[in-house]
Write the structure tokens for this entry.
Amino acid sequence: MEWADELAARVSGPQVVNDSKTPSGTVHVGSLRGPVILDVIARALRTAGHETTLLYGVDDLDAMDAQALLTADAVERYMGVPLAHIPDQLPDGHPSYARHHAQIFIDLFADLGIHPDRYYWMSEIYASGAMDEYVGRALDRADVVRDLYRRVSNVQHPDTWHPVLVVCETCGRVGTTIVTKWDGQRVFYECRADLVTWARGCGATGWASPFGGRAKLPWNLEWAAQWSVLGVTIEPCGKDLATAGGSRDRADAIAREVYEREPPIRIDYEFLNIGGRKMSTSKGRGAAAHEIVQVIPPEQLRTLFIRPRPNHAIEFDPDGTDAIPRLFDEFDRLADATAGRPVKGELPPGYASVFRYALRDPAADVAAEAAAFRPSFAHLAFLVQVPGADIEALMAAEKGTELTGHERDVLNERIAAAQAWLESYAPDRARMTVREALPDEVRSLDPEQRAFLAALAGAVLHEGGPSGGDAWQSAIFSTAAGLGLPPGRAFAALYLAFLGRPNGPRAGWLLAGLEQDFVLTRLREAATQSVGAAS
Ligand SMILES: [Zn+2]
Ligand SMILES: [Zn+2]
């Protein structure tokens, strides 16, 4: 995480870190990258000793501009209306459409370890009068704003255009109004039927006060005004707004030329792309943020977003792939490296910081977290499917001592995630069922494989039963080696005998998870190929 630590090293004085979002509908998981980056910046600043305020805003006076988000009967009435003034489309008690969608998003923050010092709602900030000064200055300097739009973004507004959007006093729409005059106290506005294609204004015209929430600034001006009102010093910026001549460039120019302040330091970040394929929704899981957090725990989700540098796009395709197990493996590798244990493969620069900032609790004991025992997700995804497996006992055997309370919490979190993964994104090959009765497929075993199964039963009985997955794994290898049977064929024999298929996850873990009497009976049955007779 050198970028965040470098940023923290080059700023001085108290810092205000800010981001905001339009609550316009269900949030894609990629939308969490911004808040996670925001939080990492705040943590890096605090670690470096800067007094830091973390703000998160909801741009809820923005106009509703997407029909698909409204129920059919609400389209005609609410397109173009501020999101804060639209009733909740679901009967679950939120005071508005904006509050409903913003709350679903905000609820994810605490789970992810993101704790803004303050959430602000633009509808409240406008209503409080705090924006009046900036609305007035935008109107006074309308010519400067028009010129700036031409220069920075090649956008040509008519000479009568003024950079304020009135909430129509007749129909309540904000997306359909245009201001053409300003007398220093009131604006003259028209609510036009054809100003935008996505909403139809009512045709009202008249003089109105633009203050106290009766009007809002267009987005680029509102953004720049937020920086002044809130004293923002650092603000990340998503790729969509970061293009040359785009939204952020305009807001930066407005900050300098209209509101006479330097814009905040910007940290541009790329998108997260969900695979080439469309996410399957048939299993009830999509790419919605509130759904994906059911399967990916906070620390692994943070890892997904902060392992690459902000300016690198993230390709993430969890559906039917091992992308989610790999995320756990990567987190565990960062933990290993941070704890000084050997790891395979390349590590990101500043890997210990990446691990630290991936932790949910900003005050966590990093060394203790790095040293903690964490079961492999792939193992767990497999063990949760083994009937009767005592997973905690198996993990204690793997660790060599009892799990601590914290390690047990991590285990339980991962067990839940593994079960959710198997029910949703997991590829079919990750799902398996131990056959209750001897599978017919054991007919395909050759004599050498049958001899191996019998020998394994004998060896295991002799030793009193291996004590864990690794011990079973070595018993399998040594028995096969003793008979001169290649390991691949030995494992295939076990998979056929227990799963009725020629492949599977680590067989040692499978056998360790099952009742030992069941294992011995099954090995002997398969060795003598008494299909359908014994069980
Ligand atoms: Zn609601
Ligand atoms: Zn109107």
Summary: The chain is about 45% helix and 10% strand. The pocket of zinc ion (ligand 1) is lined by residues 88, 90, 92, 94, 100 (CB under 6 Å). The first strand starts at residue 15 and ends at 21.
